[in-house]
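Chapter review. Work through the record for sn-glycerol-3-phosphate transport system permease protein UgpE before attempting the end-of-chapter questions.
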Amino acid sequence: MVYRAPKWIVFVVGIIALIWVVPIIGIVATSFQTPDSIARGWWHFSQNQFTLNAWRKVWTDYPLANSLWVSTKVTLIATVLTMVTAPAAAYAFHYLKFPLRRTTLIIIINAFVLPQQVVIIPLFRLWREMGMLDNIWAVIIPYVGLSYAWSVFLVKSFLEDFPKDLIEAARIDGCGPISTFTRVVLPNLLSPIFACGILQFLWCWNSLLLPMLFLRNDVTLTVLLARISGTYDPNVDQQAVAAIVTAIVPLLVFLIFQRQFAVGNRVSSGGKE
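Structure tokens for sn-glycerol-3-phosphate transport system permease protein UgpE:
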């Protein structure tokens, strides 16, 4: 039997979807219109003039391609490192016994309430003394470190329901901690790992504060977007182009991996439902 949602739910969802879509249409339309048309109102399609001048100007006057590559490189490295190290840390905190285990976990989890602004000045001084300013690792390392607060917590919450019989069976078969993790636990952690990866990718890609402070020449797309603003001309059309290029990648990533992200919220007994 196929369940059909009430018509009022479809109507409400449609209204909410329209509210979300209208600004996107406005940004796309703005990127293809002249400044006079934008001032008149981007929604006057019959009266406005459409052009590709903003797209050409952004690609020629600003290092958009290089910023796209920098954002991709920084985000992918930070995401992969988080996806590799967070499950191992969660496994260690959940199953292994070592000194100050609980204290260390509490310190990591409490980083939830630690704003990025608190670590900016100490980090800036540290990177300056080490000569790491304008180095992508000055951004990647804080990305990975600050993500442990939620990524380790997410994976550890999954391990709370992981079957302990599998761990005991692996120990009886002679597996050590590393073998148990790689052969038994890790294959069943794909759902939370993908969830961590998607969240980390979106956060790193859209982040502005750390790249703006630590990078100078090779900047990310978000920093470039902040720089595309004229002194006397607002350059709304060019900012719309940069906004589209900046938003298209995380949108595609979410659309491609949304199934893994959804499954990450429906895990049970160490496996997928």
